[in-house]
Write a structure and sequence with these properties.
Layout lengths: L4 E4 L2 E4 L3 E9 L4 H26 L5 H27 L4 E8 L3 E7 L2 H16 L17 E3 L7 E3 L3
Antiparallel strand pairs: 1-2, 3-4, 4-5, 6-7
Helix pairs in contact: 1-2
């Protein structure tokens, strides 16, 4: 019997060991929550700048001390606006999860739910049909750090890999 293998990048999964392939979705936080969090952060930043301004008002070096709350306010506001825009632009992510007898593995992450669904159907057809072959090019989305602490290929944590 030939070994039927599913290749995803550099990872190989033996088709006979795949018990289930499924799609999981991650949806970004709701827009109202993101905006409410932004407003709270801006009010907190304004309060901190006001308190810092009151503390530095009695400073002997009035010019430099007076600029600190303003610089803090502008820098903090720029950071919070950047975070607001990036969080509002987030799109849902769809994961192809391969479940084997011993573990579940996320093989592919994409913004396109239909592409992940089609890939699941192709994998299931390949399991049923030993002669099936297919090749698909998917723009994989990388989410977070890479962590592998299993077996001989322990890489630990690779930040931003």
């Amino acid at each position: 019997m030939s070994r039927r293998v599913l290749w995803v990048g550099g990872d190989a999964y033996q088709l006979t060991h795949i018990a289930r392939a499924r799609q999981l979705a991650w949806y970004p936080p709701k827009r109202t929550r993101v905006v409410i969090r932004f407003v709270r952060q801006v009010f907190g930043l304004a309060a901190a700048a006001t308190i810092l301004g009151a503390v530095t008002a009695n400073s002997s070096n009035q010019g430099a001390a007076a600029a600190v709350p303003g610089v803090l306010l502008v820098a903090g506001l720029a950071y919070f606006v950047y975070r607001l825009v990036t969080q509002l632009r987030q799109r849902p992510l769809y994961r192809l999860v391969l479940e084997m007898s011993n573990a579940s593995t996320t093989a592919v992450v994409s913004h396109d739910a239909r592409q992940i669904g089609a890939l699941i159907r192709m994998i299931m057809e390949a399991i049923d049909n030993p002669a099936a072959e297919f090749a698909v090019q998917i723009e994989n989305v990388h989410v977070g750090d890479t962590i592998n602490q299993y077996g001989d290929h322990n890489i630990g944590k690779q930040v931003g890999a």
